[in-house]
Amino acid sequence: MSASKKVICLVDDEFEDLELWYPVYRAREEGAEVLLAGPERGRKYVGKYGVPAVSDLSYDDLDADSCDGLLIVGGWAPDKIRRDPRVLEFVRRVDQAGKPIGQICHAGWVLISAKIAKGRTVTSTPGIRDDWENAGAAWLDEPVVIDGNWISARRPPDLPPYAKAFCDKLFGRA
What we know:
The chain has helices spanning about 15-30, 75-80, 85-95, 110-115, 130-135, 160-170; strands spanning about 5-10, 35-40, 45, 50-55, 55-60, 70, 100-105, 120, 140, 145, 150-155. The protein is an alpha/beta fold.
């Protein structure tokens, strides 16, 4: 098992259940400590299909210097997550430090709202392709796109290669 890494996964209600738990469990299998961060610490957030997730941290606890990577969940949660200035500043700092950022489906909304998409190459659900392009990113219809420290994927069928690519980047295998 590789040396332990600390990953923050952003969460809020109506997250896409598989897009949260699959990469979280995959990173944990690799030896990473994965902490869920939501608006409130210790609160239960409920996914689109009813699977709950309890946050370990609140957005007030976010510290880019104390984590090694970031996962942003898909579903409808990103539309809530991206409205919090604490999250946007945290995301910008993680990106500036070159730490791996995994995002899938609608998670791209968070990166777009953080104003860090210009010049990047990504994928996502086709439903937000225009948002990416309007923010200055190049959008590809591929299962996984890696651009520097960003790892992006479209939807749940892409979870196996997405989670592998994120863990490879996190543990320095890519």
